[in-house]
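Forum: Protein Structure Q&A
Topic: Joint prediction for protein chains with partners

I've read a bunch of threads here and the consensus seems to be that you should model interacting components together rather than docking separate models afterwards. I'd like to see that in practice. Below is the full input, 980 residues plus whatever partners are listed. Could one of the regulars post the assembled result?
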Amino acid sequence: MSEPEGSRKYGEIVRLALERGFFMPSCEIYGDAPAGFWDYGPLGVDLKRKFIEFWRRELVKRDGMLEIDGSQVLSKKVFQASGHLESFVDPIAKCEQCRAIYRLDKLIEEKTGIHVPERMNLEEMKRLIEEHDIKCGKCGGKLIDLSHFNMMFRLGVGVIGADAYLRPETCQNIFIDFLRIHKTMRRNLPFAIAQVGKSFRNEISPRQGLLRMREFYQAEIEVFFNPKKANEFPKADPMMDYELRLKPLGRDETIEITCKEALDSGLISSRLIAYYLSLIQQFYEKAGISREKIRLRQLGDDEKAFYAVEAWDLEVETSLGWIELVACNNRGGHDLGGHQRFSGHEMEVLDDGEKVLPHVFELSMGVDRSIYCILENALDLEGGKPVLRLPPHFAPIEVAVLPLLSKEPFTSKAREIYEMLKLDFDVEYDESGSIGRRYLRFDEVGVPICITIDHQTLEDDTVTLRFRDSSMQLRVDLGELAETIKNHLG
Amino acid sequence: MSEPEGSRKYGEIVRLALERGFFMPSCEIYGDAPAGFWDYGPLGVDLKRKFIEFWRRELVKRDGMLEIDGSQVLSKKVFQASGHLESFVDPIAKCEQCRAIYRLDKLIEEKTGIHVPERMNLEEMKRLIEEHDIKCGKCGGKLIDLSHFNMMFRLGVGVIGADAYLRPETCQNIFIDFLRIHKTMRRNLPFAIAQVGKSFRNEISPRQGLLRMREFYQAEIEVFFNPKKANEFPKADPMMDYELRLKPLGRDETIEITCKEALDSGLISSRLIAYYLSLIQQFYEKAGISREKIRLRQLGDDEKAFYAVEAWDLEVETSLGWIELVACNNRGGHDLGGHQRFSGHEMEVLDDGEKVLPHVFELSMGVDRSIYCILENALDLEGGKPVLRLPPHFAPIEVAVLPLLSKEPFTSKAREIYEMLKLDFDVEYDESGSIGRRYLRFDEVGVPICITIDHQTLEDDTVTLRFRDSSMQLRVDLGELAETIKNHLG
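Posted by a regular:
Agreed with the consensus. Here's the joint model:
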């Protein structure tokens, strides 16, 4: 992800977020609180909830997946088996003089232009530091104490303080619950288990609001399959003509290529993977992101997570550059194999009479980042005043109910209409300021419909509907109001 | 809560939970994983989701509350201000010989029958131990190292490991975000902020599945009000004749009393509190718990949380005795006052031109416990085979689609119907076993409607609907299927 600072759109989203209740830093009133923790305000909660419902409908339900919701605190053993205790680390160094701490790989890349791959050891980094005479950027001091910093949060359970960790990815619950789910839910391979929830990473430098947090929402999907049969996947048939937007390894541009062509040319290794890559690209298209701002970028060996054998990142282009929203990893037999070894429980299951250790293909989605991209994508600054052109199914407030004047009997009538609608729609009542200013205020937070209660309402029980995107106005009878709103929201 | 072991209903719920995917211990495949952590399986996820939607609709939306979703990791300062660092503790002692650890207050109560109030100090407890010669229950060893154990989980943030804690209650986000929410959301007192999410308590002895967990879901509502105006609360008017089921302090029985009578007699201190107590009692009635199994029990000084000035527990009667589901606390000015002192930010807001530090009344709901009670309440063991009579709006699976025989063309036709319904309902497809056994299997997990695809379906495109509660069967044309299901589910 590139990071040009001061993008106007980024700044505008942050302003909106803080001033209108989308999101804000956690513990804001305590100035010295640790960075990288954020709260969703009232509008953010509704947007996030709708995004997750959309994920559940378009991926989990459409594909017939099973969903679980597991504990965030997990036993140490889980991360011995998963490899996180050993490998989920960042290299760091400290300044001998001013004690500033640096993420070593990033510092070397910045100072030398040399790409530091995921698996470079500390000895090699030390050599690069000496060779290029890299010093502390703040005081010029010597860099010492090169070490690997584990990004998991440790905690002690019970009075004795038994080692446990906050999960750094939601999927570990899915792997350790796999056996029971497979047994109790009577599914045959291939099938998928999904989970949405919080994950935690002790980032050395959290930054940019929702884009790199220490506590964040993931929505993960783990597809379990027989590796010998990844190409026997009839569900993929209807996808064969769907055009993927791929940025293959070693190519500078994004190509449009059908699933069938990508499979025939060997770009994608199996029909199962082609199907799920299509599903996730379609998801963001349906979420309102235009095709040309979406790509699936293939990762090389030096970029892949330590458990991945084949990896594509779904990225979306924003004013801050391309942002990774979904890591699509073929994790192979790493996970079930690891838990089998460490737990002593056999993870092989029967597939058509043959015992097989399932492999895993995952769609690991960053929810907060996706929400940032949806907000930025919807933000229209063309007309001077910001308008948030959110698709109606993501709008935190669907309907604003506005008395023309802030006095009786307009306010009572408006409150009556608010009460009538509040259980069926997400409704807000507002009586303060001129009607024009209120329209602008609701445009800014993406409300698709404003309802105005005016003089005529008092005479004939009709109200004015004003639509955000067309600014068109429509006179509607109260008896038809709910139905009209429902139709417009789709 | 009383705890007779071996209740048949409790055992049956646990069996169902494990065998059918409602919930299961976290890290189950690792035998030595810490206790008190649970995962929701596929059916549990859907039940919980529907319960939370019901909470959102019946409390948050009905009352026009604002909802937030804040970080679970909070800065140390928050808990200095809230008093949790000092007061959220349990007294413990260790056996000198076998190192067993005891929760001291519970141990003394068990051995002597003497009630140990929340605030008894360690000196007094030591005196009681000596006086009554209380020893280790396992080996008879001497109890030593009397101390207070803080139940918050500590973690270190960043490379330097700055002190932070997992929140022991969700409401702290609400208090520290109060200022920004009040400013940005343009609300006047009184108004409420709600939040649902995970909380964490390092319980010394977690037990009984969902009833005492170390990581659990809370749904909390914090009502901010001007303490001088708790009795000026017009929203309470329509509630005045509603009959509360109260168990006042010092009384052995539950009384039925209208809000008005409870206020007139001074049992409840304000109309605002009477209104919210009514709302929460109504919530569980609407959730399908019968009135006589619900009570609001008033807490005495020795039972109340350290921050409460007036407290009622909403309790529901189960086979395990009365279980506390919602703590209804008047927290007074404790929270905003504390954060004002520690943060230096003024928490007073304008109310009709007068500056006031809002007081807080809370409805702090245990979600997992509520789900246990709803499951137990729905479990019908009368007919021999268990039937889960869940209200349709809580049913994890709404419709089961069953080919009469597990062969073509029944299975293709059934799959076609499954595909037709899957995005609008929570549907499951099942072809294994006799149709009668499949009915029983879906009765057991609360599915209200089974659809059978039989010989006649192939001729005239009609299917049989079989209803769980009446066992009634109905022949329906495929064209009317969705509508018929929708009507039955309500």
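The two ends of chain A are 35 Å apart (CA to CA).
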